[in-house]
């Protein structure tokens, strides 16, 4: 049995119109993790990358492909937070995850797109593949595995240590 990533609600929200921004973020994150799992990835939440930026979700596929997902809970959240390009050097694929109510037309066309609620999600637009260099992939994969092991051991770690 695995533990859920950090900050998950015990129950998915059922009334999006009445939900607070943290509740929407938690529900979209939960749905994104479930959607990624359905695509063959396993994810860690709130991963601090070597450049100091914190990825909402970082996932790895059985082939070792790294996928970063940035959760956006509202249009305001997207407009004030333009750091997503800083994640691209640390993954093979990048996507946004948003709630069904989110105005998708404001998002750029190049990243992938997951539309999620607290129950799951759908990959609406595939995240383009931009393969990492071999040495960087190895370092990030080892750091990801070590972070996952620390969390499995009960340590509240967030940093990828390269």
Written overview of the protein:
- It is a single chain.
- The chain has helices at residues 21-38, 75-80, 134-152; strands at residues 42-48, 54-60, 66-72, 93-98, 112-117, 120-125.
- With 162 residues, the chain is an alpha/beta fold.
- It has a 6-stranded mixed sheet with strand order 1-2-3-4-5-6.
- The chain is globular.
Entry keywords:
162 residues, alpha/beta, six-stranded mixed beta sheet, disordered N terminus
Summarize the structure.
The protein is an alpha/beta fold and 162 residues long.
| Multimeric state | single chain
Q: Mean pLDDT across all residues, rounded?
A: 90
Question: Major sheet: size, sense and barrel closure?
Answer: 6 strands, mixed
Shape: globular
If helices are DSSP runs of H or I spanning 4 or more residues, what is the number of helices?
A: 3
| Order of neighbouring strands in the sheet with most strands | 1-2-3-4-5-6
Count of strand segments: 6
Helix content: 25-40%
Strand content: 15-25%
Query: What is the CA-based Rg, rounded?
Result: 15 Å
Structural class: alpha/beta
* Run of helices and strands: HEEEHEEEH
Low-pLDDT residue intervals, each spanning 5 or more residues: 1-10
User: What number of structural domains do the residues give?
Assistant: 1
End-to-end Cα distance: 28 Å
């Amino acid at each position: 049995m695995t533990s859920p990533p950090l900050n998950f609600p015990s129950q998915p929200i059922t009334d999006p119109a009445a939900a607070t921004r943290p509740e929407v973020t938690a529900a979209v994150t939960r749905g994104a993790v479930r959607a990624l799992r359905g695509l063959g990835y396993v994810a860690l939440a709130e991963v601090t990358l070597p450049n100091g930026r914190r990825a909402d979700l970082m996932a790895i596929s059985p082939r070792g492909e790294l996928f970063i997902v940035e959760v956006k809970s509202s249009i305001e959240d997207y407009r004030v937070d333009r750091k997503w390009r800083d994640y691209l050097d640390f993954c093979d694929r990048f996507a946004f995850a948003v709630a069904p109510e989110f105005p998708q037309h404001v998002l750029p066309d190049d990243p992938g797109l997951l539309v999620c609620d607290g129950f799951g999600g759908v990959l609406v637009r595939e995240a383009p593949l931009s393969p990492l260099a071999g040495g960087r992939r190895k370092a990030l994969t080892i750091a990801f595995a070590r972070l996952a092991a620390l969390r499995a051991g009960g340590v509240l770690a967030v940093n990828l240590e390269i």
